[in-house]
Amino acid sequence: MTQPISLRSLTPTPAAGFEQPFEMLEACHERVHRMLTLLARLRAHLREHGADVQAQQAARDVMRYFDQAAPQHHLDEELHVFPPLLAQGDARIVPVVQRLQQDHLQMESRWQAAREVLVLIAQAQVQHLSAGDEACLDAFAGGYDDHIRAEEEIAYPAAQALLDEPARTAMSKDMMHRRGAG
């Protein structure tokens, strides 16, 4: 009997609310890590069980997150975190922000390639991943750790120091509005 690809161990801690935009951004990073863990479990599951029903559902779950939530998260940063940091012009921060912006473009490109692999799994068109498929998924997942670390350790603290309460409130309202919340 096959073991399900369980999301139970990936259950989130209580989520931050939109009224705390930077905490919400960090909570999104936790969800990214959970989805990348699910992707790793899916890959291991495929090696043993092929693209069974559980693998198909896991592939759909990963696609749903990176199709819907991840782009909104990147847009939050592109609209509200990066512009004030670039405008301030700090010589230590600007290159980091520029790299983060490049990362977003690269992540989108890598996601499109990874998504093609996941679609094949979700539709049970492949039972095992080729070396090229594995490399594609590695490239996609591999870009996140350094990116998230730079955001949480450099960009977010610097932006929080720059944004006053009205700017944070506007950020919160925009984040909610674009997601149809509140």
Walk me through this protein's architecture.
The longest helix is centred in the middle third of the chain and has 36 residues. The protein has a single domain, classed as nmb1532 protein domain like (Four Helix Bundle (Hemerythrin (Met), subunit A)), CATH 1.20.120.520. The radius of gyration is 18 Å and the shape is elongated. With 182 residues, it is an all-alpha fold. About 5% of the residues have low confidence. Helices cover 77% and strands 0% of the residues.
Shape: elongated
CATH topology label: Four Helix Bundle (Hemerythrin (Met), subunit A)
Number of DSSP-assigned strands: 0
CATH architecture: Up-down Bundle
The SSE order reads HHHHHH
Please state the average pLDDT score. Answer: 92
> CATH homologous superfamily?
nmb1532 protein domain like
Major beta sheet summary: none
- Put simply, the count of helices is 6
Beta-strand residue fraction? under 5%
- Helix percentage range: over 70%
Distance from first to last alpha carbon: 44 Å
Low-confidence stretches at least 5 residues in length (pLDDT < 50)?
6-14
> What assembly state would you assign to the polypeptide chains in this entry?
single chain
**Which structural class do you get from the secondary structure elements?**
mainly alpha
| Count of distinct structural domains | 1
CATH class: Mainly Alpha
What Rg, in angstroms, do the CA atoms define? 18 Å
